[in-house]
Amino acid sequence: MTHFEIERLDFTKEAVRAWAPRDHRNTNWPVVYVLDDAEAGGKAAVRGSLNDVYVGESRNAAGRMRQHFESAGKKHLSTVRVIVDATFNKSVCLDLESYLIRMLAGDGFYRVLNRNDGITEADYYDRGRYRETFREVFDELRRDGVFTRSIPEIENSDLFKLSPFKALSTDQAVAVDGILEGLFEDLRAGTDSTIVVQGDPGTGKTVVAIYLLKLLVDIATSAPDDDVDSDSLFSEFFVPGYRELLTDIRIGLVVPQQSLRESIKKVFRKTPGLRPDMVMTAFDVGFAEDDFDLLIVDESHRLNQRANQPSGVQNKNFSEITQKLFGSDDKTKTQLDWITAKSKHQIFLLDAAQSVRPADVPPELLTGLVQQAKLSRRHHPLMSQMRVQAGADYVGYVRRILDTTTGTGTSPAVTAELFDGYDFRLFDSIAGMQAEIRRKDTEVGLSRLLAGYAWAWKTKTDKTAYDIEIGGCQLRWNSTQTDWIASPKSVDEVGSIHTVQGYDLNYAGVIIGPDLRFDPVAGKLIIDRGSYFDKKGKENNPVLGKTYTDDDLLRFITNIYAVLLTRGIRGTYVYVCDPALREYLRGFIPIAV
């Protein structure tokens, strides 16, 4: 039964003064409110009329409004909606406040003015029932023009998934708290530092990177008299002493993958305090005029060592940056070295098992980073699985059945497992898997076909051609490399590793191509070099005198499939081209019927 009411009034001193005495709950009851700059006058806000929005909670709404009148950053707001419920308490209001902040940020139509001082998934009595009420509150606010999209549309968007207002898991919150403690300790001491955040696919490394950057900016720009709720997770850092350490701090977020980088820039355009030019490539960092106080590097395993770059210009740039930073064209220097040379403090977020190309920095360098961070007590592991509903065991299971070091599935440690509540299926028909992906996309959205790079990209130059042809089924590779997952044609196309690494899907249909095979005699995975079409994925490195063997290539290809097989939140479907590999995987993946 719905108990809540939403009262709308003009955000003026006169209106609040008249409203306050009408009900004791306006001055003495926990409520949540939404402030925006919609046109006043009782009409629902029309699409396009909202620019800024702020969400708050208080036990004295009228008193809180009077405080907001004194805030220069909120004087332009014109409408307040107060959400009152006879059953609300402080915990419920904190949860509803964070829920609305996240949904407004994900809606993408407004700038959310809230500071990021610690949204977490806190539990409390009867939370499940209250969460149903939250959806009703959302629907009512949407009818009044506050939201422009439905809950599923918002939750499937990159703006929501990459928002700095995400609620942190306990695992992530502990990591962020530890990072802040270590960083501020090093800032006070005036010593340089390297921090490492390490986690498997789906543990939320990118979320931590974005959240942390927003949090540091908010601490740096906070005012001494700011009202910070002592219940917020990171309120201890919004006190004198911390803000001063961040005065004029120069921070950058390095994201190696083009698609993910552009998606994050979209989020930063809509977030006060963050700017798109904060999101950079390693080349941007290398050519920057000034050094950085702090560089946060997401997907650090995708930084490059010296190798033949995708273009002659980038080869020239690699050489120029190395000479500029180190005085000579030292070919042993990598983009990791650029980052440390250009910043006093670095935060590397990484998973060495997600290196997918020979040009990626070698695993031994990443191992060295981790060991160094552990010795200096600046290592923060992320263990909880935030993406795949099957949990962390599923990620480990996928990696074990694709293992390249112990004879693969012949190892006694690898036994068939079932994951209750997770839709994990092996298809014998590519058309059947495609139909199921389309059905899931209609049902819940964000369901896509993915594949290893086992087919040439013909449609790059011939839009009428097909790239992938399997048993009469004709498919095309992704028609865009930027934000492909959200593009209109994506449900009818196939995404490669370069368009999906770092992203979530509801359902992933993974085509394992003829580049990966199974040798039943040897009982292990093998590769077909001629069926692998990523030129940069198998290119030798004459600059460093490196020749990549089939074993090296097997590691890259199995890493690619491990990434693809861990994109799906609700389920993963698999079709395998090689008959022997399909038969092998029948022992580990339930058969679709």
From TrEMBL:
Residues in domain GIY-YIG? 28-115
Report the InterPro entries cross-referenced here. Answer: GIY-YIG_endonuc (IPR000305), P-loop_NTPase (IPR027417), SLFN_3-like_DNA/RNA_helicase (IPR018647)
Q: Which domain of life is it from?
A: Bacteria
Listed transmembrane segments: none
Q: What Pfam families is this protein classified in? A: GIY-YIG, SLFN-g3_helicase
Provide the protein name. DUF2075 domain-containing protein
Q: What is the lineage of its organism?
A: Bacteria, Bacillati, Actinomycetota, Actinomycetes, Micrococcales
